[in-house]
């Protein structure tokens, strides 16, 4: 069996407030295929609302025969946007997030990087372990990390969501 979508183009699909909390317009250009050899998806989607436009860029490939996964995901949204609102981020900060990774499904390694500007204060950081569960990294008032991620592979330079254009990066490894 094989399913192939050479191009799925959405030009201005209006989404109502009842569906996502405020009116927005979806525009997208995507392609995907699923065969016995691989599953792939690539393209972009943009969700525009009164708070600006959030954009997602996607390039994914899974090859079961080789047991490999390649992923490149990027999200960009200005302050006050819908994605931050739906995620419950205090102050609805601007977002620039990226997840990239490549490797076997048994030893997949990915890098999550992000930049959050404006909005309220928040926490960042995670690591994979113990069956793939994510554990948050928290900071004490003195700035030192605590919790499982403080001892793992997550590195939190500072809490996300401040007004200084804070950045964070974490490296995850599937067990």
Structure commentary:
By secondary structure, this protein is mostly beta strands. The chain has one domain. Helix content is 5%, strand content 54%. The strands form three sheets. The chain has a nine-stranded antiparallel beta sheet. Strands 8-9 form a two-stranded antiparallel sheet. The longest helix is centred in the middle third of the chain and has 5 residues, at 82-86.
Question: How do the helices and strands line up, and which of them pair or pack?
Answer:
Blueprint lengths: L2 E13 L1 H4 L3 E11 L4 E11 L2 E12 L4 E10 L4 H5 L7 E11 L4 E9 L10 E2 L3 E2 L3 E2 L5 E2 L7 E2 L10 E8 L2
Antiparallel strand pairs: 1-2, 2-3, 3-4, 4-5, 5-6, 6-7, 7-13, 8-9, 10-11, 12-13
């Amino acid at each position: 069996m094989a399913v192939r979508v050479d191009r799925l183009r959405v030009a201005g699909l209006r989404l109502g407030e009842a569906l996502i909390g405020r009116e927005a317009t979806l525009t997208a250009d995507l392609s995907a295929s699923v065969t016995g050899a691989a599953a792939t998806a690539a393209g972009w989607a943009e969700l525009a609302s009164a708070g600006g436009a959030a954009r997602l860029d996607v390039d994914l490939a899974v090859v079961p025969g080789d047991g490999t996964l390649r992923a490149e995901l990027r999200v960009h949204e200005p302050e006050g946007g819908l994605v931050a609102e739906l995620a419950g981020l205090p102050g609805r900060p601007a977002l620039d997030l990226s997840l990239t990774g490549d490797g076997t499904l048994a030893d997949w390694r990915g890098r999550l990087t992000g930049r959050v500007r404006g909005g309220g204060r928040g926490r960042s950081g995670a690591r994979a372990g113990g069956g793939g569960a994510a554990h948050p990294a928290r900071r004490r008032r003195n700035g030192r990390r605590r919790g499982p991620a403080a001892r793992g592979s997550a590195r939190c330079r500072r809490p996300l969501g401040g007004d200084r254009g804070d950045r964070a990066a974490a490296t995850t490894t599937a067990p």
